[in-house]
Amino acid sequence: MSSQRGNASRTRTQKHQNTTAFKNDKFGASVQVKKANSKIHDGLCQHCKGVLEWKVKYKKYKSLTQPRK
Asked: Taking CA atoms, which of 3, 13, 20, 40 is between 20 and 30 Å from 34?
């Protein structure tokens, strides 16, 4: 198994490869997805900005339920 400790090399290639990119609004965008896509992340470090953009891109972003104090 590839997740075993110390087993760094595999004997075969990757079984499946994606042919198309993931679309977070493929089957019609909900209100939350539209809001997340339009949001601009300013005033953040490069790492945090990249994390938030990845979450929005792959539909993992959840907005805050209450505003931060």
From this structure: 20
pTM of the model: 0.66
Residue whose tokens read 């959840």 = 62
Question: Which residue do the tokens 């539909």 mark?
Answer: 59
Instruction: Output the CA–CA distances (angstroms, integers) from residue 54 to 5, 12, 63, in the order listed.
Output: 28, 29, 14
Asked if 24 and 33 count as a contact pair (C-beta separation under 8 A), the reply is yes
- 10 Å Cβ neighbour count for 56? 18
The gap from C-alpha 25 to its chain's centroid, in whole angstroms, comes to: 13
Stated length of the chain: 69
Nearest in space to 30 (alpha carbons), one of 54, 52, 53, 63:
63
